[in-house]
Write a structure and sequence with these properties.
mainly alpha, four-stranded mixed β-sheet, globular
Length: about 525
C-alpha cells in the first residue's frame, strides 16, 4: 500500500505555567524604579475610576470592608501597629537590619512556583501579602522620618555640587599632584559647559571648538591635549570631556562595552541623519540589518545621555532619585528606608458597593468587578514591590557594611546567589528587583547592581576593587613608560592583592584600556 499523508488525534497531558494578570503585574512592578513606578501609578489613576488617592488624614477602609459594604473599617497597620519582625522606634518608622533580614517567611509564600520554572517567576504567586491593607503603613518610608533626618539626606543628595567640583575631586583621586597631566586636565575642566562639553568659552556653549584650536589657546601640543582628555573622559559621569554630542555618545557606548562595529555605534557614527528622521526603514536598509537587530540597537541608544553634565546643573532637575536610602540610626546601626517621594497613598474607591447596587445591566456589574479587582491587585502589587525592594536592599547593605562605612576599597565580592540565599528568594527575583534601581548611601548614589561582582580566582578581593586599582595605576603612570600587565600585577601584589597577569589583562580589556605599547607617548 502506498504511503501518504494522514491525520490523527491523540490526547496528552502536560504541565505548564500560566501567569495570571496579577502575577504578570508583579513581575513588571518589581523591575520598576521610583520614577517608572510613579508614572505607572499616574496612568493607573487615570485609567481606573475605582483607584483613587488617599490623603494622610483619610481613614482608609480595608479591601474586605469595601467588598462587604463596611466602609468604616480602617486599614489595619496604621498608627502604632507594625508587622511581625519589624522594630519601629517611637515616632519613626525605621527598620533595623537584623529583624528585617530574619523575617524571610513573610516574603516567601508557601505555594512556590519555582518547581515549575527555572526562571524564578517562582515567587510571583498570588498571596495575601497586603491583601487586607489598601496602603501598607508599616513600611519604613522617608516621608515618615522626622524633618531634620529627612533633610539631612535630601540635602546631601540635592546640595549643589558643580560639575567642575565633581570632576576635580576625581582628578586628584587618580592623579598625583606632580603628574604633568593634572594641571592641563584641570584647565579642561574649567572650560566645560553645563552639559559637560569642552568649549573655548563655557559661557557660549553653542560655539563648538576643535581640539587643535583649544590646544593653540592653551599653548600646548595636540598630543599633550589628547593625553589630558584621555584622563578626563574616563571620569564620571560617562560622556563628559568631549567636543560634540556625537563624540560623547560614542564614548558612552564604549564605556558600556560596545564594539566599534556594533549597530548602535554605526548608527551614531554614520547614520545620525536617518536617526533624527526616525525612519526605521532607511536605517535598516543603510545598516543591512533586521528589524529585531535595529530594535536592540535603539534600546541601547535610549540609555545614552546627550547632556551628561546636566545632573550637576543647579538650574536643571535631578533625574536620578534613589529608590532606597541608608542612614545611620541613633544606636549607631545602619537603617534602610524606602524613598516614597512622589508615591501617593492609594485606596480603592469606597463607593464600590453602591456602584454595584445601582447597576442593573450585567455588563456594568462585570465592568465594576473587573475594575475593583484591577485596583486591588495594583495596590497589592505596589506594596509587594516596595517590601521586596526594601528587603533585598537591606540584605545588600548588611553584606556590604564595610563599603557603606569605608568606601570602594572595602567592597566585598558578592553575587546574586549570596543575596538569594540570605533572603530565600530565587536569583532571578534578585536580578529583577535590583534592575535600574539606586540606593543613596554615605558613600554616594549607586546602582544596586554596582554591589554585585565576582572575585578573581587568585584573590578574595572584589573584581570591582581590582579594576578600580588597575584604572588608578594606569591613570597615574608615566606616559613615556606605561605599565605592563605584569608590572600592574606586581603593584597589586605589593598592596596585598594577588592576581595573575592574565587576570590583569582581562580586566584591563574590560575597562577598555589599551595595552602598554599603545599607551606610550613621547
Amino acid at each position: 500500500m502506498a504511503a501518504g499523508p494522514f491525520l490523527s488525534q491523540r490526547l496528552a497531558q502536560s504541565q505548564t505555567l500560566a501567569l495570571t494578570p496579577a502575577m504578570q503585574l508583579k513581575l513588571k512592578l518589581w523591575q520598576m524604579n521610583l520614577q517608572e513606578l510613579s508614572q505607572t501609578i499616574e496612568r493607573e489613576l487615570e485609567d481606573n475610576p475605582l483607584l483613587e488617592l488617599a490623603d494622610d488624614s483619610d481613614e482608609v477602609p480595608t479591601l474586605e470592608a469595601i467588598e462587604e459594604g463596611r466602609d468604616s473599617d480602617v486599614t489595619e497597620g496604621t498608627g502604632d501597629q507594625a508587622s511581625d519582625g519589624v522594630e519601629l522606634p517611637e515616632g519613626v518608622d525605621t527598620v533595623d537590619l537584623g529583624p528585617m533580614l530574619d523575617a524571610a517567611g513573610e516574603m516567601n509564600p508557601e505555594n512556590d512556583l519555582e518547581r515549575f520554572t527555572e526562571e524564578g517567576v517562582a515567587q510571583v504567586q498570588e498571596t495575601e501579602l497586603g491583601a487586607e491593607n489598601s496602603w501598607d503603613q508599616d513600611l519604613p518610608r522617608t516621608s515618615n522620618l522626622p524633618e531634620e533626618d529627612r533633610l539631612s539626606w535630601e540635602d546631601r543628595l540635592s546640595a549643589f555640587e558643580s560639575l567642575q567640583d565633581h570632576l576635580v575631586g576625581q582628578l586628584y583621586e587618580t592623579l598625583e599632584h606632580e603628574d604633568p597631566r593634572a594641571p592641563l586636565v584641570e584647565r579642561l575642566i574649567d572650560r566645560m559647559d553645563p552639559k559637560g562639553f569642552i568649549r573655548l568659552d563655557p559661557d557660549q556653549p553653542s560655539v563648538e571648538v576643535s581640539p587643535a584650536a583649544l590646544a593653540a589657546d592653551f599653548g600646548v601640543t595636540e598630543e599633550e591635549l589628547r593625553a589630558a582628555l584621555d584622563v578626563l573622559q574616563e571620569f564620571d559621569p560617562s560622556g563628559v570631556g568631549c567636543f560634540t554630542v556625537q563624540e560623547s555618545l560614542l564614548l558612552q557606548l564604549r564605556h558600556a562595552g560596545a564594539e566599534p562595529d556594533d549597530l548602535a555605534v554605526r548608527i551614531i557614527q554614520d547614520h545620525s541623519e536617518q536617526l533624527s528622521q526616525r525612519d526605521s526603514g532607511k536605517l535598516r536598509k543603510a545598516l543591512g540589518c533586521t528589524e529585531e537587530e535595529l530594535c536592540l540597537a535603539m534600546e541601547q541608544l535610549k540609555h545614552l545621555n546627550p547632556s551628561p553634565g546636566r545632573a550637576f546643573d543647579p538650574e536643571g532637575e535631578r533625574v536620578v532619585k534613589p529608590d532606597v536610602v541608608v542612614l545611620r540610626g541613633e544606636d549607631g546601626n545602619w537603617k534602610v528606608y524606602l524613598n516614597d517621594e512622589g508615591l501617593p497613598r492609594l485606596r480603592v474607591n469606597g463607593e464600590y458597593p453602591r456602584f454595584m447596587a445601582s447597576s442593573e445591566a450585567k455588563c456594568d456589574k462585570d465592568f465594576i468587578r473587573e475594575r475593583f479587582r484591577s485596583a486591588r491587585d495594583f495596590i497589592r502589587g505596589v506594596e509587594d514591590r516596595n517590601r521586596t525592594v526594601l528587603r533585598v536592599s537591606a540584605q545588600i547593605v548588611e553584606l556590604q557594611k564595610e563599603f557603606i562605612e569605608h568606601g570602594i576599597e572595602r567592597l566585598r565580592p558578592m553575587v546574586l546567589r549570596d543575596v538569594a540565599e540570605a533572603t530565600g528568594f530565587h536569583e532571578s527575583t534578585i536580578s529583577r528587583v535590583v534592575k535600574a534601581k539606586t540606593i543613596h548611601t554615605p558613600q554616594g548614589l549607586y546602582d544596586l547592581n554596582y554591589f554585585f561582582s565576582a572575585r578573581p580566582k587568585e584573590s578574595d578581593i572584589s573584581a570591582t576593587v581590582v579594576k578600580h586599582r588597575i584604572k588608578a595605576f594606569v591613570q597615574a603612570e608615566d606616559p613615556a613608560k606605561p605599565l605592563s600587565d605584569e608590572a600592574i600585577a606586581g603593584l597589586l601584589e605589593r598592596d596585598g592583592i594577588k592576581v595573575a597577569r592574565r587576570t590583569v589583562n582581562k580586566y584591563r580589556e574590560e575597562l577598555k584600556i589599551p595595552p602598554a605599547s599603545q599607551r606610550r607617548r613621547r
